[in-house]
Amino acid sequence: MKITVIGRQMNVYEDMKSLINKKLAKLDKFFTAEGDATVTLSSKHNERNIEITISAAGTLFRSEVGADSFRDALDSAVNNIERQIRKNKTRLARRMRETFAEPAIEEFDDTPVDEETIIRTKSFPIKPMSPEEAILQMNLLGHQFFVFIDDQTNATCVVYARKDGAYGLLIPDQE
Q1: What is the mean pLDDT of residues 40-60?
Q2: For domain 2-99, is the CATH number 3.30.160.100?
Q3: Spatial separation of the C-alpha atoms in residues 94 and 67, rounded to whole Å
Q4: Residue ranges covered by each domain of the chain
């Protein structure tokens, strides 16, 4: 994993950089692809803050922790990220067994949309991935839906969180 250490209005010494590299090296076992980690250290109001952002295979993990020392904050932040990874892997596996056993069919409201109701327009890059990866990415971002390109069919699809706690998959009709 490529690790970048940034000090906000401070210098980061080599012993702290080596400690950060050692702590983040234990997270390598979770990533099959090459990952990038950015660690930002700052000190505000006698509190030491560490922000860790890991990007691996298009998935983001983030933790921001404040403590009395950088070592304590680093330990807490690494534990938070490890917990996020484990939680999302087990949640994804369980939901995939439950959800994709039966296809979900939803009815949609055909009420026309007034142009003035669009508050914000957002653009983002779309990359090919499996529905499982899309669900994981959706959960990590905390969104209710996620648009992606299916790596098997190259169709633009949407996964979404249903009210009953399961997931749905919208696949375009290819006529």
Answers
A1: 85
A2: yes
A3: 34
A4: 2-99, 119-170
